[in-house]
């Protein structure tokens, strides 16, 4: 058996999901996604699939028409965490975690989640187009995507690219690509602060526990840079919008 790499294990350890999202907001999004019994749920760029598991449970897993889910991601460790979560909740017969490119998945589903993963398709517009072919007619997509909450500085644009839309631009883009926008909400400051803090927290704790590890200096520098960038450059500037889209 391989010895545990505590650094790797700590990476996302304090995150519930890998997006700025409170429990209450997640519940609202799942209600708006309206997962029906017996439906198929697909999560492209699922990470460890916490929302996917909840979406499947929301659809119902007992009875004659159980809801089923598939999560697709390229991160082995995240997929393994997803499988452990599914097993712990007795959902492993209902949810599969598949290693693969999101853009290469073609089997359609009734409900599709794509949160913070549009880059896997080449960007916002490409993702909005690609999602049309994996959602069944009458289906819905929960699309989580970044937007500029305030005009970006040059540094913010350098980090996130020049393609990030503002919120009206994001919604208009979705509409022009044939989607009906059934729900819009955005992550608030507390959700962002919690996201950024928990993104750092696993490795902050590792640093405090293993300060003499040869990798500590590099990890400390990475975490310090990220926190500096967040509070100095994109806090309150980059937003995250959650759209429920139908067609
Ligand atoms: C910001 S995280 C969001 C994860 C998840 N949707 C959530 O909300 O917790 C983006 C995810 O996209 C995955 N990803 C990146 N490129 C990908 C690709 N080409 N195909 C599939 N997944 C990809 C990453 O591994 C990561 O898990």
Automatic annotation (TrEMBL):
GO biological process: methylation
InterPro entries according to UniProt: SAM-dependent_MTases_sf
Signal peptide: none
This protein's UniProt keywords: Methyltransferase, Transferase
Superkingdom classification of source: Bacteria
GO MF terms, alphabetically ordered: methyltransferase activity
Pfam families linked: CMAS (PF02353)
Name the record gives this protein: SAM-dependent methyltransferase
Organism per entry: Micromonospora acroterricola
């Amino acid at each position: 058996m391989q010895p545990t790499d505590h650094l790797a294990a700590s990476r996302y350890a304090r995150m519930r999901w890998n997006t700025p999202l409170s429990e209450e907001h997640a519940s609202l999004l799942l209600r708006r996604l309206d997962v029906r019994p017996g439906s198929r749920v697909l999560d492209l760029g699922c990470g460890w699939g916490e929302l996917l598991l909840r979406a499947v449970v929301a659809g119902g897993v007992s009875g004659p028409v159980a809801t089923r889910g598939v999560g697709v991601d390229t991160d082995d460790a995240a997929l393994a965490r997803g499988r452990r979560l599914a097993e712990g909740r007795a959902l492993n017969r209902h949810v599969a975690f598949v290693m693969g490119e999101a853009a290469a998945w073609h089997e359609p589903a009734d409900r599709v989640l794509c949160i913070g993963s549009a880059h896997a398709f080449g960007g916002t517009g490409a993702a909005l187009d690609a999602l049309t072919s994996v959602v069944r007619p009458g289906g819905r997509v929960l699309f989580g995507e970044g937007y500029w909450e305030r005009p970006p500085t040059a540094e913010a644009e350098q980090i996130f690219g020049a393609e990030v839309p503002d919120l009206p631009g994001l919604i208009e883009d979705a509409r022009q690509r044939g989607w009906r926008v059934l729900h819009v909400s955005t992550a608030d400051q507390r959700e962002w602060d919690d996201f950024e803090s928990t993104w750092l927290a696993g490795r902050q704790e590792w640093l405090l526990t293993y300060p003499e590890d040869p990798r500590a200096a590099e990890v400390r520098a990475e975490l310090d840079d990220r926190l500096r960038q967040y509070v100095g450059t994109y806090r309150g500037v980059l937003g995250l919008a959650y759209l429920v889209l139908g067609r």
